[in-house]
Amino acid sequence: MGEEGEKKERETEVRGGGEEEEGKGKEVVVMDTPDRTRNQINTPISKFEESPVFSFLNNLSPIKPVKSVHITQTLNALSFASLPSVFTSPHVSSLKESRFLRRHQLLDPSKPEFSSDGENKTDGSEGITQVSHNSSEQQENFDPGNSLGEVSVEPSYESSQLEVEFVKSLTYDCHSPNSSPKTNCAASNKSRSEFDADTGPLVPFSQAGSGKGLFANEASMEGMCQSNHRDAVGCDWESLISDATDLLNFDSPKDADAFKKSLCPATGFYTNNAIDMQNMQLLGCIEQGEGNDTENPSTQPGEGNCLTKFVETQDMVASSSLNNDCMEGSLSQKMDSEPASNLYRGMRRRCLVFEMAGARKKHLDENSGSVSSILLQSDGNTPTADKQLVPFRTGNDSSRCILPGIGLHLNALATAPKDLKVVKQDASVPGRLVITPGSAANFQSVMVGQESSDPSLALTSTESDMDPVENGVPLMEDTNQASALMVIEEFNQNSPKKKRRRLEPAGEPEACKRCNCKKSKCLKLYCECFAAGVYCVEPCSCQECFNKPIHEDTVLATRKQIESRNPLAFAPKVIRSSDSLTEDDSSQTPASARHKRGCNCKKSGCLKKYCECYQGGVGCSINCRCEGCKNAFGRKDGSMFMGTEVELEEDETDAPEKSARDRNLHKTAIQNDVELQNPESAPPATPLRIIRPSVHLPFSSKKKPPRSSLPSIGSSSGLYAIQGLAKPNFLPPQPKFDKHFQKVQEEELPQILQGDGSPIGGIKSASPNSKRISPPHCNFGMSPGRRSSRKLILQSIPAFPSLTPKH
DNA sequence: GAGTTTGAAACT
DNA sequence: CAGTTTCAAACTC
């Protein structure tokens, strides 16, 4: 009894201390001097230490010192929480976890922990506090009534489980077989500590530096970390659980809700819980079939928020993961340098997209691993159940970009259509493609949306609905998630691999495309990156590049200007109409796509990449003004060896060649299919951005894919639809892919092309961005059936479409 | 890696 | 709209 009384007192003190800390934290923030913060914080700490309770606690467990550290985190979390709930939550969660562990160790026997935590928090608030300060909300959200410690414990546990399940469902695809659930508890703890230490500082930096975008990423990362930690800590959890159960029991839903409310928004501690709770709810909703689909985050404070948060979290995670990919090599370093990294995020993402496949889980190093692991998990690469910290390493290549996050992100997007809600993930998007889809993009998106009918992969074509600028992040259903994940995973694995395989052999090791602009500042269509709607990335050799997140305004303005001149400037260059090959000739080559404007080749004979038609893997058409056209994909004169067109016209003279070509193409197509199988699921969707050219069958094996192909590559990604949303052009080139689908129906082409004269047509082919224009229902899912009906695919919707501001 | 070729993009 | 210039990728060596 006496102890309990003391505990209460402690709690009270702690709370007071916590509040004080916040206030201090704020001060600290203002002050900016860590030292001061510490000093200030120290005061309370000393106070606590002096208290008998503190002594008692100390006696109870030797771990004390650690606690202090954790506490710090906790504080951060709280302060952090003030930020967007979503962001906050992850961060918080991480903190919380650490906290939990400590508690567990320290306090198991009794609840006193709490107080100790509170103390620790104060102490810990140091670096982290700065971050939290920003959020004044914490205090508000922070429900004094609830003892954070008590409530938090159990929820966290539950949440962890839920999270795990959720993650499983989400990340299922991503799992790395290697993932080892078995992290040592000790190690995990240690990692946590380190992680926390790292994260704490990071967060502040991020905020200061990049603002939301960065912040979000970090937050997501943190969130990931949390989950990871949880997993890692598994052993601790059990003990904690037992403890926690005592502490937490929501007898009634009300309590739970109250808990959520109090925690979710505000306190970092609970953020995790809140997130978890959200996840749980989300899952529950989904399962139950509650249609939250379009809920705005704001609509329902309770569930709605949770969902939204959840989505955001995923999104964040994805973004973070992306970053990680790029960062790969040195997460730890990254952590340190995060502030600076913000700028690169967008770029990174882009890279990531291309290299998604590369990213795979690895066991996380305690050192840097924490962060990386977090990211990974977030991506869903690791199965939560098994979660282990798996550091994300793409290998030595720092340059390489992996998309762990993307996968997730994409997934989210992909699934969006149904249940999803669109979340504006990108707000921050620095990491993400900055460019919002322009009109063209929208157009595509719409198209895609139609197609996205495929349940598994439904894309969020909804962009049209959404503000183009803001990419919506759809919420996924469980089932959808799984499928989406699957797709993503495949995408990640396959596409990246493919890319590498093909590209590397070709001699292009770099997955990410890069430009080499010297005079255009990467603000003209000369720049492939810009034209594709993506920011230039590190690998780019451009000079005086303005196509970077930091110059987002400039990029958007320029883009807008260009679009004003030519609305289709960023539209896919290649339009494809596809019949459903399904009918019979899947085998036949696809090439039915055409370049929207046609080429103007004089010397290349349309047999080199100089020719956009050729580069795009499509035959020349009437629109072409080329001379001496020998386009292997189809001559201007109509002789085509591929697909339906062939039927239309044929050069008998070239028959032999054609047959050979066809074979090659066909072969390629097949390969692509195999690789891309997902495509089925993969909706061509990149609503936002479409990649221009698409596949180049011929190229694939040989040299590096034509740049243009990159975008087109996206097409493959496009299949994955997700990409489209998530990223515009990033997808690695998987050129051939297109052809597979390409049956051109010239009949249809004209429609598209005629429409504008330039066609926006979607090209299904390879470019990730490609959009299909299809009858209302699209079957992404249908691999063979893609063409079930004639569809016009906008192949390359310009990646940037998104840039155009949404008005 | 440097230089050339090529054709799109941009400009007039 | 046509002609010219600019630009950067593609290509060659």
TrEMBL record:
Top-level taxon of origin: Eukaryota
Region (Disordered), start-end ranges: 1-44, 106-154, 174-203, 669-689, 750-777
Biased composition regions of type Basic and acidic residues, renumbered to the chain: 1-38
Hydrolase among keywords: no
Domain CRC: 511-634
Major place of residence: nucleus
GO CC terms in record: nucleus
Keyword terms, alphabetized: Nucleus
Signal sequence bounds: none
Matches recorded under Pfam families: TCR
Compositional bias of kind Polar residues: 127-141, 176-190, 669-680
Intracellular or extracellular location(s): Nucleus
UniProt family annotation: Belongs to the lin-54 family.
Protein name listed in UniProt: CRC domain-containing protein
Species per Swiss-Prot/TrEMBL record: Cinchona calisaya
